[in-house]
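Hey all, sorry for the wall of text incoming. These are the two entities for the joint prediction.
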Amino acid sequence: MFSPEVLSNLIIFVPTIFAFFLIFADTKATEFMRVWTLVGTAITFALSVALLGTYSPADGGIQQVVAKEWISSWNIYYRLGYDGISLTLVVLSGFVFLVSMLASWGIEKHVKGYLILFLILETGVMGVFFAIDLFLFYVFWEVMLLPMYFLIGIWGGPRREYAAIKFFLYTLFGGVLMLIAMLMYFFASAPHTGNGIGSFNLLDLAKWAAQGNVFSPGLQVAGFILLFIGFAIKVPTFPFHTWLPDAHVEAPTPISMILAGVLLKLGGYGIIRVAYPLCPYGAQYASYALVAIGVVSIIYGAFAALAQTDFKRMVAYSSVSHMGYVLVGIAVWKISEVTGAVDGSDYWLMGMSGAMFQMIAHGVSSPGMFFCVGVIYDRVHHRDLNQFGGLVGLMPKYSGMAAVIFFAGLGLPGLCGFIGEVFVVLSVWNYSKVLAIVSASGVILTAGYILWALQRVYLGPEYKGPHPEAITPMTSREQAIGWALIVPCFALGVYPNFVFDYTDKPMAKLVRSLNEGYQNTPKPHSEVQTTQK
Amino acid sequence: MNDIGPLVDQLVESTKTSVGLFAPELVLSGTIVVLLLCRILPLVWRVPAQWIALLGAFTAFAWTLCQFDQLATPGGTLEAKSFFTGLLMFDEFSTFFRMFLSLFLILTITLTVLTGIPDREDAPDFYTLLIGATIGLMIMASANHLLMLFLGVEMASVPSYAMVGFMKGRKQSSEAALKYVVYGAGAAGVMLYGISLLAGLTGTGSLPEMSERLAMIVEQGAGISDPTVRTVVFASMLVMVGLAFKLSVFPFHFWCPDAFEGAAAEVAGFLSVASKAGAFALLVRFGLAFSGHSKEVSSIAFALGIGLGVLGAVTATFGNLSAYGQSNMKRLLAYSTIAHAGYMLMAVSALMVMRFSKHAGAEADAASLSCIEGLMYYLFVYLFMNLGAFAIVALIRNQIFSEELDDYNGLGTQCPLLCFGMTLCIFSLIGLPPMGGFFAKFAIFYSVFKATSVHWVMWFVLGAGAINTVFSLFYYIRILKAMYIKPRPDGARKVNYDLMPVGAFVLMICLPVLGLGLFPSHFTETFKHVAKVLLTRS
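and here's what came out:
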């Protein structure tokens, strides 16, 4: 119907257009504005599915669809493109925004402002996934900050001011580091562009990085550290995760869903799309540290989740733990000490694919868990795990849905959480047996905190907390959201090729070109021995 | 007697052309005369003073715009040259700043019309001072001679002192003006001392000749231990002290928060933007006056550039950290302007470091080009974002009669348009995309980043700039927090304003902040051209 160029532009800007018209809506017409926004997010989701339909992963490369000069004296282009990796995440974002919009019906305060910010946030997110110009990527990346600050700060819980500023500060700090890395690459690429000005084109930069002789090892290591910290804050991995529990707990339910479902994925996506392709040498240099950080995140997040008494905080820490698998899967890049060639590149590819799948799976299950928390919080206005119990009897449908979604988070075979975790843990075995055992034990801890939470909230003889009279069955809107989240949990768990069909080839290509880049980069003396500590 | 004849002819001829080039300033001077006649001639008194001032400002702006257009188009009727026997310089760079300043004058006068400061009785005096200061700044921007440098700075300063103390009834205002005068006079004296030293050593006050003469002096000497060379360095530093005072650079910034707090927000907005623009134009010109082929002079200028970089880093850090504790909006914004002066100083520092490095070449030239381009872009965005912030403070003050941050609580729902404008300005001041402030900061960081390849101190400067962006978030966000997150206290004064003139004005100032971020291309091209001409000529 539309060309990919039009489609990708529409996916980014349809939300903004809908937001613009909201400005003229009457403040009191809340119902109309909600429906309007719902239509906007639904159209965006439909367009993203349509774009996925037109995509055929021919060779797995990034298909550039738009390249318009934006700031000529700086070689900055409005450059959009996509491959299977970004497209699956675009569809996920469209889905999560649609579902979160349905969950936003309960927002009563300043509805108009909320909806406008909500839509601008969607534009920022979609823009990041489509941008293949580093400058444009950064612009969209920061555009997300502004609405998010207000969405947490105005519509959040009691400590919302603190949580919002903390979120803002962490992300801005990461952004500044990214900016410096951007400048480094812009500067270093200047001799190769042909016109003496540097380049922000991610495709070109990745190509030069794969050639190996353009960016020096020192630059790649420094650039990788800066970029990685910037993205790790967003993922978030230990020790940059401390903003997350606060932001999640204070944010309203739909915003928590978006935060967990989409914004965290941006960190992983940034690592895959920017940090790794631009600095293959740096990434390999740091690989052991990265896997270790990932494993620590898994274990630390799980233990922290076990210790929580606040339902939402527990779910927030489960995100830290689950996103740890993503980092581990990406980072298991082993170089043979003897030959200097990559050791078990298939395992690494498996880890990468697992990480990608884990992102999608977590993008479905985590919003689901936050939604479940939101449903009960809306009724009884507390989240103390020790004051729940017996909800199965009172809200049977809700409890059933919650059980499925939490089991998906746990990683039960047949549900979406399983595939990613298994792929990642298997691939770590090749990398380091110790770390594999530690990360596998994370699965047990995960089962521990999720089962224990289910037991305390849903099982038990009766509900003993405050407001027992408010516990009513789910409304039809809530049921619709629940079903919408459960269906992909099953679908992805039973038939993971929904994702792998699109991501396999791009991932294989990425792994290949990263490896080339590492092999081609001239190494400082005796580097081959020291990279594997 | 015979040689006098041609000399007089030459002088007459040069004056004729010079007067044409100086016309925008003359128009403004004429406006001042009309304003002064206001009280005497009843006929003129009937015309509100602001319209006279606005007419003059518009004419000057249109004139400079034409001049700039003529200069920038190849084959235009005007060409760059010095005029008034070499005292002033007429080129793209100076004309851009004169245009910038007259545009800013228009916006400031419009703002004062909307806020009603000054009242009808005081209006002629106020606009006389405002226009007088602008003329001084325009002279600063085109100064080509040490004498004009001093005259420009003084002509810009003296009306500013009076404007700060313009709200005569307020004790605070008078105190602020007094502080400003004392600091200003001290700085001017120091600068004059530096100028006299430089002129005495070189035997000329003309900036283009300075480098050559300095080379003669310095090459005779035996390095830095030579007293003459030391005097040159010392004198240059003293001149920079005077400029640093106008820029409110650490440690010459102490007047700034007090003066801004005491002055009306409109005046503070004017001082914060206009005097920075004039002073930066002058600083760039003074810095480039060291250009030449002498290695010794270059190394002096290089060292000065490094010093400016450190000063810029310290200023930005100091401004941002001090702003954190402020509860008065004008004081907070005053510290924010100090911080921004620090960022812009980094660009000048990068310019001098690149220009005077030992490995000068095509690449260094391209780098110094982007420094000036970045600085001009920053100033241009700064015009809108800082004036916007001060204008909104003034407009809100007219409604709630307060400039305390705590009284801003919950304004977001009461005057959405003003708060929206403030939000745009603040995001731009922080340097977040897609606002213009982001691109400006990006351009400056890029210049500094390039300079890191020349000297390691620039890494420190770059790091300070990056960290300061995060620091600044703390206090800027407090304003947004007050406006949007805090509830409006019960019984607080209702805010209502006419949407039409005020809203249109706020949008007119604040939307360019966004526009400059989204479409910077056209402006960067122009600035690049200006910078190229400036660098090739010096």
